[in-house]
Structure to design on (171 residues):
């Protein structure tokens, strides 16, 4: 079932993205695409939750737009996803370094999440570079730099292999 939006959430943007993803699944599973616009809006309103449904009056939609689900969703997008400062997002990305006891997968996940708001033309390259230059282990960083590995996948595989070997040695 689709979980309604919690307006008390620390991150309404994340809460909204989760709801949209779940609502899309609900629409597909229940074949709502074939339903009338009124029915689809009714499902949406019911599933989003009472508090979030009440927000519709704050969205600035015309009466005509309130009859089109796509327009309603776009208005909620704008409401729950405020515009971000690209420079601040990229600053956070470039300053991210691996912390003690953080695995490569945890670090990679954090870097990918930061990269998702940075609008990079070559996102994989930016992620690869941040992983390499943000790593704690200078030894593996140096090996990767001198190996001339240029793909994100190859770099991650090398780091994972090194982590596995290190764990095996410490057993």
């Amino acid at each position: 079932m689709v979980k309604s939006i919690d307006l008390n959430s620390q991150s309404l943007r994340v809460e909204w993205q989760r709801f949209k993803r779940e609502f899309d699944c609900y629409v597909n599973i229940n074949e709502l695409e074939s339903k009338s616009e009124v029915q689809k809006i009714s499902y949406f309103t019911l599933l989003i939750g009472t508090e979030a449904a009440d927000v519709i009056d704050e969205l600035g939609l015309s009466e005509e737009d309130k009859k089109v689900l796509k327009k309603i969703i776009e208005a909620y997008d704008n409401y729950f996803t405020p515009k971000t400062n690209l420079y601040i997002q990229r600053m956070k990305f470039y300053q991210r370094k691996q912390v003690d006891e953080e695995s490569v997968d945890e670090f990679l996940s954090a870097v990918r999440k930061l990269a998702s708001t940075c609008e990079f033309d070559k996102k994989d390259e930016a992620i690869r570079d941040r992983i390499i230059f943000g790593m704690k282990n200078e030894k593996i960083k140096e090996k990767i730099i001198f190996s001339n590995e240029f793909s994100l996948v190859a770099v991650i595989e090398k780091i994972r292999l090194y982590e596995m070997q290190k764990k095996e040695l410490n057993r």
User: Anything to note?
Assistant: The mean pLDDT is 91.
